[in-house]
Design a protein that fits this description.
The protein is α+β, with helices and mostly antiparallel strands. It contains four helices and nine strands.
Length: 157
């Protein structure tokens, strides 16, 4: 059984390209529902990165992938349609959490690594997380703070 990676992509393009992307992903969604297996866009030559449970509203795409993000497939689609994107992905069971920026055909993938996840501690007895002198009930806010700090430090628009 696969671990599911949750993915959200916000495309940036003119209105007609957004409409074409919406049509593409709606068709992939319909096909995925009928076939009950993941989908890849026509012409993509890779064997990984299948889209599951696809939903697209306006210029935001939401879907699942098995185990890891599918950055290469999104770049393939963006190049085909002349679009750019900001891509958020997470699979916390495998300590995967990041964001990819695709602008002017430049890819910047910024993600948390093992050292980042060591920046906070979980107290199993009290079921709380400790981070920088504060206590949290879950680690979602912590990991988002860590990612935003990395983006601020590393992202070059």
């Amino acid at each position: 059984m696969a671990n599911w990676c949750f993915n959200t992509v916000k495309f940036e393009a003119n209105e007609s390209v957004i409409e074409e992307l919406t049509t593409l992903f709606l068709r992939l969604s319909e096909k995925e529902i009928l076939e009950d297996k993941g989908q890849l866009p026509a012409g993509y030559g890779g064997r990984n990165g299948y889209f599951f449970e696809i939903a697209m509203d306006e210029n935001e795409l939401r879907y699942l992938t098995k185990w890891s993000p599918n950055i290469e497939v999104l770049i393939f689609v963006a190049k085909q349609y002349g679009a750019e994107f900001v891509y958020h992905y997470e699979e916390l069971g495998m300590a995967i959490y990041g964001v990819t920026f695709y602008k002017n055909e430049v890819v910047q993938d910024i993600y948390l690594d093992e050292e980042d996840f060591k920046c906070y501690q979980y107290n199993q007895a009290d079921e709380i997380y400790a981070f920088e002198g504060q206590v949290f009930r879950d680690d979602r806010e912590i990991i988002e703070v860590l990612l935003q700090r990395k983006v601020k430090r590393l992202y070059k628009p």
